[in-house]
Amino acid sequence: MTELDRRQFLQLAAFGGAVFSSALPGVARAAADDFYFVQLSDTHWGFEGPENPDAHGTLPKAIAAVNALAEQPDFVIFTGDLTHTTEDGRERRRRLAEFQQQARALKVREVRYIPGEHDAALDQGKAFSEFFGPTHYVFDHRGVHFIVLDNVSDPAAKLGDAQLAWLQADLQGQPRDARIVVFAHRPLFDLYPQWDWATRDGAQALELLQAQTNVVVFYGHIHQENHHMTGAIAHHSAKSLIFPLPAPGSQPKRTPVAWDPSQPYRGLGFREVEAEPDTPRYVLSELPVTRG
């Protein structure tokens, strides 16, 4: 299936859903091969509550939807809150193990993970690292440099001086116009700090990233789409796979949006991100949990 056919399939036939294009400013580098990845976020494995009566079924449905894509993504990334918070360390590991077992059903060559505060804030990422390795790291794929940041293992919602120094050193090794994609769980900018939707020292990370001309950030945490610019950097949050949350500051408290039996899974979903060749441009397709 050609690239154009796949888009038509996604946009017009199979899943529908909004398509958001993020055209980044800056000078194009040498052509990178066309590829795409899938972002899933905030699965909260272990959650129980009326906000999602199908809490154990939603993640498997989303995995089945990814596996049913007409063309498999180059990789899948989960942007945090793989599990729901528990103060019991043994239970936390049990949930992480169950989540990992579920994720093994994905029919892709590569699956990557970052922690959310529900996974990592109570033990500074120790249990997460036992299952998934480092909480912050880099990798390269078809001409794009990917940076995974950890802004959750510190319970104060900070990256910390050591990680900022690590980020600075990594960026110094990149050309100024390198294509860079950053993954984090919390927003790096102050989206709505009253609801913990910020990173306390995120401004320092953005100052480092602003020196680059082609940066885009994908994150989770807020359980809904949000698109925002800080200077030349585009920030895109993803929907959740457990329950949606209200728009920033739209109500007094950050309480989940109630489950609607007439529209099950409303507000939940995952994202396809297509990196186009030749230009630092990304096409975002928001896809539902199920075809129904």
UniProtKB/TrEMBL annotation:
Signal peptide: none annotated. InterPro entries: Calcineurin-like_PHP, Metallo-depent_PP-like, STPP_CPPED1, TAT_signal. Pfam families: Metallophos. One of its GO terms (molecular function) is hydrolase activity. Residues 37-224 form the Calcineurin-like phosphoesterase domain. SUPFAM superfamilies: Metallo-dependent phosphatases (SSF56300). Transmembrane segments: none annotated. This is Metallophosphoesterase.
